[in-house]
Amino acid sequence: MTVTAEHGPGWAHEPDPGRRVTAAGRMLAVLDAFGPRHRSLTLSDIARRAGLSLSTAHRLVHELVAWGALERDGEGRYSVGLRLLELSALAPRGLGLREAAHPHLEDLHRATHGNVQLGVRDGTGVVYVEAIRARVRNPVNSRVGDRWPMHATGTGLVLLAHAEPEFQEQVLSSPLERFSPMTVIDPDVLRRTLASIRQTGVAVARGQITVPDMVVAVPVLDAGGRVAAAVSVVVEATEARTRELAGVLTQASRAISRTLGPRPVTGL
Amino acid sequence: MTVTAEHGPGWAHEPDPGRRVTAAGRMLAVLDAFGPRHRSLTLSDIARRAGLSLSTAHRLVHELVAWGALERDGEGRYSVGLRLLELSALAPRGLGLREAAHPHLEDLHRATHGNVQLGVRDGTGVVYVEAIRARVRNPVNSRVGDRWPMHATGTGLVLLAHAEPEFQEQVLSSPLERFSPMTVIDPDVLRRTLASIRQTGVAVARGQITVPDMVVAVPVLDAGGRVAAAVSVVVEATEARTRELAGVLTQASRAISRTLGPRPVTGL
Lengths: 268, 268
Prior knowledge:
Pfam families (chains A, B): HTH_IclR, IclR_C
Structural class of chain A: alpha+beta
Low-confidence stretches of chain A: 1-8, 263-268
Keywords (chains A, B): DNA-binding, Glycerol metabolism, Transcription, Transcription regulation
Oligomer: homodimer
CATH architecture of the largest domain in chain A: 2-Layer Sandwich
Domain IclR-ED (chains A, B): 83-262
Function (chains A, B): May be an activator protein for the gylABX operon.
GO molecular function (chains A, B): DNA binding; DNA-binding transcription factor activity
Shape of chain A: globular
CATH topology of the largest domain in chain A: Beta-Lactamase
Helix content of chain A: 25-40%
């Protein structure tokens, strides 16, 4: 069961007209025009979505293509280019973390046959820095680089449970989106869920984003003992053996923590 | 044997003072300040590397942090942020390709116990959109997002062999960097190598970047039959059974091609 087109990742990055006041802001608005449902855009799409004149958009797009942030296909449509992949590989909490975690996530995937995600907190959301999907089943929409709200994902609930109380309240008091009939959006219920996650060390959620999936998630600690990331496994609810999943997840999480070494992951 | 600090990925993106003439160019210069050997920079590092005044750098960095392209750690140093990972996930030749290829690359990794890379052509170089590394041995410097010159990598040689002749000559007539004593930089020898790759369908190179490694690489075709990417395996030369490796690589390549579906990968 896939996420409907109206919802899904990238929810926090619709173009923001307020940024268009500076030249640099206009360039960022061009980049913001791209999203999971807008991967390939014409020049006029970009101008419209970024709120720019066609000539300004043309000039900025030209500059971004020359730099490698965008590429132009044979039909004159633009998409995100590889220079951004190259740059994003430098993010200490991105592909570096992914790389440390990768073998353990593969083990986890093989042991559980579920979708495996590694997420970190960014702003008020969670961004997946790794996602390994089962080949056929569980076509849940989880990809590297996806951004989701915290209340609706296993990794997000874990990260929220271990965040500072002010941040928790900020998230819980903002409008909480419903992704499936089973998404919990009641702040009081969520507060109890977070307390339980802190107590048990494990988040278990059912159908929060897609029915009939069940997700089990645990925190990943950095060398300083702080929660740097969260790892989750999504399986079909009928197959979920929660306690068993929590066991292998905790093992994987400890293995990842060991590879994070003595230098704590920064920025959280 | 790792690559020395003087060489390595990212060679094509040292800051370019020529770009600083426009406001957007100055913002890209700030991003260009970051690289594999400059993952964490102070504000004055950024200003110096981007060729900007401290106040201009401060303003642009502030804007980039607000947008999520950069993040600031507790010690006031800046690094690349997760918004760029999120954006780069939209690149059709980046993480999308990676995702289609991933299970087959994992199989390849398991079958060969070597480092596995999936590379695409970008500008005059090759960018790895996936890299799976053996846990302990072969600590060759291959990571997702790494950019390498074509003449010195297995995937690059394959992509170059199947590129248009004008492009080949452009690459062969530019200065070719030596990464190890065994890197081939003689254009005539390289021309013969490219002809042989086209004939046999396989590139075999030994110690081109790191000694004592051997790399075997094959092309990945899109649904239109064009070379969209190249996949390679790096193993220790003493263990290389070239013919066997070429066989499993070709199988993996065909499996990846099938997942690329009827829509050709654009932009090449």
